[in-house]
Specification:
heterodimer, A: 423 residues, mainly alpha, 4-stranded mixed beta sheet, two-stranded antiparallel ribbon, 5% strand, B: 250 residues, alpha/beta, 2 domains, 6-stranded mixed beta sheet
Chain lengths: 423, 250
């Protein structure tokens, strides 16, 4: 430990630094609560998102270490080492190791918690940590450069702020998103991490790291032929990745070609993406409760209701589950969401097309959902509600409209939808 | 010069710090053989740069430095720099390290194999009088003890060439005398170059002297003769130095 962390401080300082990195990493992870408990992939995403603050802290720590090293008078000894680049880069490696351990521990913590909360694990997506750790290398290199060349202690917070700023610049599109990891606003239902985008990010980050580390002490790093070859390959490759990343749109996620579903219940049968099955039991219970009104008047339900997943075509005859992202991740769903889903017995292409569906399709589905809620005893129409009279009328009077509307919704004949007279 | 004994030679060496255009070191030839050589000059004369260049730590823009005929900045650099020990003017090893760990760090830095480093470090700490303090933190050592630790650091490779950059600067007379005694005990076959402002140290500890001014060698010769010929009736080494400086600048 002594030799590895020699410029970072004594054992106590190293332990405190690690604890500080852990705490810093938890801030972005918990910034939106614990919604990631509902999706293992989202938890993994949040683990990499911890770099948002761990990286700047690591840059500050690296800067401090290199200010100590360069002002200690040890540089001539470094230059006369057998491989000068190795003692020069060792404090950077030690800082990277500490920060990487903080990110990995954080990621392990959130993914284990998500799994314990009932989210299905996807260990094959753990590769996404590799590009994240490459980004961390670039963040540490920013601190090494400033500390190695600037040689002033006050540069440590500057290094941290600069590293954080690079992430912000990427997020707002000023520069390619090299320094930003994780932080997706979604649930990863039916989605996974995009390999190509992450490869480009990793390549660009490694190129930046190699370039900055070389600039921090050209005499040490640029001396041997082998080191020059490695640096050249990384910088040129990284430059190409950086340019590619800056051109066009590069999504960090992509829809799964054949997303796995987990289904429960019989009437109705409800299917959620394997990534977000946390609310499934509650959803089935509430769907069964409200679907009784439909089956009682003789409606044959779709064989199953399936959660919409980006890019996945709707199955023939399947009903569409209309869950909000927070509901996909939570343990419970609202009765209104359930009613809205039961009122969508087919995932019609018009719902997601460029041209919006007829206005009446929204109104009829809204009325149908309210009818379901009233029949399940979950809604009392207000005195000013325009549909109060119709909702209060008898089932015999409502039955023809409900049957006809449901038929048209299942067949996606949206142009034929009409509200009942008087509503 | 005996072929079996080490020799360090700088030929046509020019050093500068870009973007500066002035040569900090500008030597036609400087040959250093076994025994101690004093390197004197005013502040900014180029002493430290010359020592770093001779140590293999600072590649000159022009010229060659050879150790036993082999180019110090050539293909055999790795092996050659291991034969040179450098005691920098200031070496502020991390204060939180224990003395033994600090020396062990320098051994690692200089590429000393682990199997030989341990016994050698113990021996060196005894030699410089820090054996009983091997488990103390560096920050708790006095200035004199720290300089002795740095001297031990310069000796971890068992160097054939030892370059000492102002080794007694900042020490009180007692500490200086102690360090001087240590340096005088070094093997005579070692090429030792001692840069110093303290002419008394140079006179007592070196057999030869090099006077450097603005990167150029003004004088290179026997130390005793230098003081005798140029030090006036009092045989003052300071006077000899100042006279050489004045003559060279004239």
């Amino acid at each position: 430990m002594t030799r590895t962390f020699v410029w970072l401080g004594d054992r106590r300082t190293v332990v405190l630094t690690f604890a500080g990195m852990l705490l810093a990493g938890l801030v972005p992870v918990l910034s939106h609560g614990t919604d990631w408990l509902g999706s293992w992939k989202l938890a993994l995403d949040r683990g990499t998102f911890s770099l948002t603050l761990v990286g700047p802290v690591a840059a500050g720590v690296a800067c401090t270490a290199y200010v100590r090293l360069t002002t200690s008078g040890v540089e001539p000894l470094v230059q006369t080492a057998r491989r000068p680049w190795w003692p020069w880069l060792r404090p950077a490696l030690a800082t990277w190791c500490l920060a990487a351990a903080a990110v990995l521990v954080t990621t392990l913590g959130v993914t284990v918690a998500a799994q314990a909360a009932g989210s299905a694990p996807f260990p094959r997506t753990l590769w996404v940590l590799v590009p994240a750790l490459c980004v961390l290398a670039a963040q540490v290199a920013v601190g090494v450069l400033l500390g190695g060349l600037g040689r002033r202690r006050w540069l440590a917070p500057v290094a941290a702020a600069a590293t954080f700023g690079l992430g912000v610049l990427g997020a707002v599109g000023v520069i390619p998103e090299v320094f930003r990891t994780g932080g997706l606003t979604g649930s990863y239902a039916g989605e996974t991490f995009d390999v190509a985008t992450h490869l480009l990010q990793a390549g660009a980050a490694l190129g930046i790291a190699a370039g900055l580390l070389t600039l921090s002490d050209r005499a040490a790093v640029w001396r041997s032929l082998g080191a020059r070859a490695v640096v050249l390959v990384l910088v040129l490759g990284g430059g190409a990745c950086y340019v590619a990343l800056g051109r066009g749109t590069h999504e960090t996620t992509r829809p799964l070609a054949d997303p796995a579903l987990v289904c429960r219940g019989q009437a109705p049968r409800v299917c959620l993406a394997r990534e977000t099955t946390r609310p499934l039991d509650d959803l089935v219970r509430r769907m069964e409760q409200q679907a009784v009104a439909l089956t009682e008047i003789g409606i044959e339900l779709p064989p199953r209701w399936v959660q919409h997943r980006p890019g996945a075509p709707a199955g023939d005859g399947d009903g569409a589950l209309e869950l909000f992202v927070e509901e996909e991740l939570a343990g419970e769903v609202s009765d209104e969401t359930v009613a809205r889903s039961l009122a969508t017995p087919a995932d019609c292409p018009a719902y997601r097309g460029d041209v919006p569906p007829p206005e009446a399709s929204f109104d009829t589905r809204r009325l149908l959902a309210r009818w379901l809620l009233v029949h399940a005893g979950l809604l009392e129409p207000g005195a000013d509600d325009q549909d109060r009279a119709w909702l209060a009328s008898g089932t015999d009077e409502q039955r023809p409209w409900v049957l006809g509307t449901y038929d048209r919704l299942r067949a996606c004949r949206l142009d034929e939808l009409r509200l009942p007279a008087g509503v | 010069m005996d072929d079996a004994l080490p020799s360090l030679r700088a030929v046509d060496v020019r050093c500068r710090y870009p973007p500066g255009t002035v040569d900090v070191v500008d030597l036609d030839e400087l040959a250093l053989g076994p025994g101690a050589t004093g390197l004197v000059g005013v502040n900014g004369a180029g002493k430290t740069t010359l020592l770093l260049t001779l140590a293999g730590a600072c590649r000159p823009q022009h010229g060659t430095v050879t150790l036993d005929g082999a180019d110090l900045y050539g293909r055999e650099r790795r092996e050659l720099v291991g034969r040179i020990g450098l005691m920098p003017q200031s070496l502020d090893l991390p204060g939180e390290l224990r003395v033994a760990d600090a020396l062990s760090y320098v051994s690692w830095l200089r590429g000393v194999p682990r199997r030989v480093a341990g016994p050698r470090e113990r021996e060196l700490l005894e030699t410089v009088g820090l054996g009983p303090r091997r488990h103390e933190r560096v920050r708790r050592l006095s200035g004199g003890m720290r300089r002795r630790l740095v001297l031990a650091s310069a000796l971890v490779t068992e160097p054939a060439v030892l370059l000492l950059d102002e080794p007694t600067t900042g020490l009180d007379p007692e500490q200086r005398a102690g360090l001087r005694a240590l340096l005088l005990d070094l093997p005579a076959a070692t090429v030792t170059v001692l840069s110093s402002h303290v002419m008394e140290d140079v006179e007592r500890m070196t057999a030869r002297i090099v006077v450097l001014d603005e990167g150029r060698v003004l004088h290179h010769g026997d130390t005793t003769a230098f003081v005798a010929e140029r030090g006036g009736p009092e045989r003052s080494p300071e006077l000899a130095f100042l006279a050489t400086l004045a003559r060279g600048r004239a």
